[in-house]
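Issue 218. Parser rejects a valid record. Input:
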Amino acid sequence: MEKIIGREIEQRQLKNIIASQEAELLAIYGRRRIGKTYLIRNAYERQLIFEFSGVHHATLHQQLELFSDTMSKATGFPITTTTSWTHAFTLLIEYIKPLLKKEKKVVFIDEFPWLHTPRSGFMQAFENFWNMWASKEKNLVVVICGSAAAWMIKNIINNKGGLHNRVTRKIRLMPFTLGEAEAFLKQRKIVLDRYQLIQLYMVMGGVPQYLKMIEKGESAMLAIDRICFTKDGFLHDEFKNLFNSLFDDAAMHMNVIKALAKKGKGLTRNEIIKTCKLQSGGGTTQLLEELNESGFIEAYTPFGKNSKDSIYKLVDEYSLFYTKFIENGKLKGAGSWAKYSTTSAWISWSGYAFENICMKHIKQLKTALGIESVHTEHNMWRYVSKEEENGVQIDLLIDRQDQCINLCEMKFSINEFEITKSYAKELQTKIDVFREKSKTRKTVFLTIVTTNGVKNFGKYIGLVQKEIKMNALFKN
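Output the parser choked on:
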């Protein structure tokens, strides 16, 4: 069994399931290539007695044929193609029942949503399998897994029919943190400094399958160039494949992603509807929920506002990178990334991408601030200027229960970041406008997060209360 990197909470939960004295139905979901299958196979290597996976866009006959082939390999006996899912689950019961007499065993059904084809009867057959037999077998664990996160939540977690309240455990698998990504690459004998690791994370996020494409001896620049800009690069055409595999009407989802990619500061629901020419109603709500649950976007409630004022931001690193440089970029082919990295477009993108990373590592920022035990909420805040007043955008605000607020500025730079007089004035203006317009009575601390520190921090110690360097983001 290979060592599982990170996933400490999930690993504890998987161990608890095996130690349970009753039947368990585990639903695990998360975006494609995030490592769901790898986690189950490695955590349950000794207990796994049957594994089957749905196939995207396969017909009912094709799915049943594959099931019968899998069953033949498991039993060692030839099995003709079954004619229905009801019969398929009957065969599964006959196979696994004798294996449950002594200890806990695991049945793993991967890409579960792809098996639920129109008029296939799959869900009804599975519900019957679980309710009438599997739920009574104390030595049985059934794991159902899907990359279509929104589908899994709607049809499994929040099922209103035969599976209502039947799921005993659930795991939403998230991308690796920076620290986990570093450990993952080290396990693969790839050692890069943390500035280069952050550059890779800006493009690939914490998606294990993407990180797996990096080769030993490559710099971040060469890896990005090969994987993203060469004709056969793994991420060159991943965008459309990714969305088409997750959503039935992927064109609408991709339009929203592209609209958000153009607006780094985010869009409100109404702005998304107007920009993408969507209808205001349940369809748009579902679309945004699907993108959110799949980890592509996130809704941030502005400080002092409620959820109806939420601002949606694109938080998937690869989607942002693809839309800016691969799909709409002027440079193509090998060597493109080296040329891009000297342009103003790269500077703008890297600043926003670094902000995104910081917002995903709130836990690490809180530890660096020494407030890990303090309850907090993180928000954004913006004030649109009127006439001669100053407009202000604060991308990360940590609102603390101890009556303090950290306003965070995030700066990506290969060298130490230097605060100029004009930037210091801009920072002071942000603080003043925020205090005045938000009417907060809390103490406001300005925190600056950089890759390699602030060169002249001592000069502005009265303005910036805390500096955090990138090393803090790698702690788990």
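Fixed in the parser; the record now loads. The first strand starts at residue 24 and ends at 29.
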